[in-house]
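Write out this protein's structure.
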Amino acid sequence: MLEHWTKGRPERGARVSITIDLTGKAALVTGSGAGIGAEVAVWLARAGAAVAVNDVRAEKAHEVISRITAEGGRAVPVIFNCRDDAQIEQMVGAAVDQLGGLDIAVNNIGMTAGYAQGPFGTIPAESWRGIVDQNLILTALCGQAEARVMQAQGRGGVIVNVSSGETTRPSPYMAAYGAAKAAINHLTSTMAVELGPSGIRVVAIAPGTTLTEVVRAVFDDAGVEAIRQSHPLRVMTEPEELARLSVFLVSDLARCITGQLILADAGAHLSRSRPANAPGPAAKESG
């Protein structure tokens, strides 16, 4: 909504307000029981979307649903383990059954849990394969299932893939994770080209190291400060900032944006590399 708009330019002192209204839209957010995914789910609901909250941990999903319903929004649980290929299709189907369709999908799951990280020369083959599977392949399979639904509906849609700022610069101790997430950037552009004729936009967002509960638990104060000082803005990314960005990107305000990687990293990509004294954690959420 634009107020006091005249030909060419707004009147002096005129206010410009923009309203994002996702009322009537059905959204699915994977891995949304905590961290970035939880905030994305909450903010999509605040904008009016009905949201399917996915997590393998039922109690975490219901905590987020409680936040949404307490604010007057609508949310439903889809409790599935996306590391199981068969459950991905079931998850999307359950979201569609409960919400009556699918217009927005945010593929947030990305992890290194259970796999060794460290100097490039020490990462074992099992870790390379596991991290690629839990990031690139998991995102691709979720995207396939979501796109099939959107194409069948015939009304377009938006898919957001959560990548990482670690794809934009050297990331000591995180070679496998950074490479897997970088592949998601390429996947996003390819999906955008193939799905565009169906009216489906595909974008990727790249958080910097984000202050989720997991990151706060892994890094000590010195590690957090080293990362903060490496950013031109001297701040860390907060989950809420990624959520607000996601709401904009899935709205009609961004209807001509597709195939792009959107950075929200406090300028971390302008640094030469991730601080060597702040190695990546052994278990890390998206971003």
